[in-house]
Specification:
With 219 residues, this protein is α+β, with helices and mostly antiparallel strands. The protein is built from 8 helices and 7 strands. It binds adenosine-5'-diphosphate and magnesium ion (MG). Adenosine-5'-diphosphate binds next to strand 2, strand 3 and strand 5.
């Protein structure tokens, strides 16, 4: 059991609090925000009322994401870890089930900035454009399936003079996943759509956002 009672989260997403692992400083532990599961369930349309809790639980969906075909049998030296945190499974914590994965830090040991932070500070400069291109090539080559790729779900790490991106959230089931799992053409089409939408989101975040994202993503 991981005791988080004396720990303060270093970051918070829409659904989970992120803590540094008290026993392994190079790992993070993510637990669902208090009451968030019930909130998501209450907000879901009526036809989802019979669905299991795991459908709304980011940790359960992440576990399923790591069990996808492209990752299931990946060894420790596999290319799949070039842009993904290593994953250590779901463990019981004092705050409920916690998803444990590799923590990315800067040279000072503080958690790495997100791509959203980077874009706010530097805009879409050549270095990050190159890192995004590299990430996209890796996604196509490995066939890893993701949900929509959002800037706050990447962290940026300097690596041998360049920048490297890691997707720290967003593996897991999207509607088209089962089909894309089994058919290569469908997989590549699915991935191309995710990349296209990633660029759309980046340009939207850099714009004046006068058009709401829900509309912009459909244009
Ligand atoms: N492996 C990691 N290394 C460094 N920072 C992380 C890591 N995972 C998450 N974070 C930070 O925590 C925030 C929330 O984590 P995330 O997994 O996206 O939670 P949620 O499921 O709530 O969206 C991220 O935006 C990022 O700032
Ligand atoms: Mg997130």
């Amino acid at each position: 059991m991981i005791d988080l009672s004396n720990c303060k989260p270093f970051a918070k997403g829409g659904n989970r609090n992120c803590f540094r692992h008290p026993d392994f400083p190079d790992r993070c532990v993510k637990v669902m925000l208090p009451g968030r599961l019930a909130e998501l369930r209450a907000r879901a349309p009526w036809y989802k009322s019979l669905v299991r809790d795991s459908h709304f639980d980011d940790n359960a969906r992440e576990l399923a994401g790591y069990q996808q075909k492209a990752l299931r049998h990946a060894g420790p030296d596999s290319a799949v870890w070039q842009h993904l945190p290593r994953y250590y499974g779901i463990h019981e914590t004092s705050l409920g089930p916690g998803s444990v994965s590799e923590l990315f830090t800067d040279q000072q040991g503080t958690p790495a900035p997100t791509l959203e932070n980077y874009l706010q500070d530097h805009g879409l400069d050549g270095r990050i454009e190159k890192a995004l291109q590299q990430f996209s090539d890796w996604l196509r080559a490995t066939g890893v399936l993701t949900k929509n790729l959002l800037p706050h779900n990447f962290v940026v790490i300097p690596k041998s003079g360049n920048l490297s991106l890691y997707l720290i959230d967003g593996l897991g089931s999207a509607a088209a996943l089962p089909l894309s799992e089994h058919f290569e053409v469908s997989r590549q089409r699915y991935i191309s759509r995710r990349i296209e939408r990633m660029w759309k989101r980046i340009h939207w975040e850099l714009s004046d956002r006068s058009i709401p994202w829900k509309i912009a993503e459909k244009l």
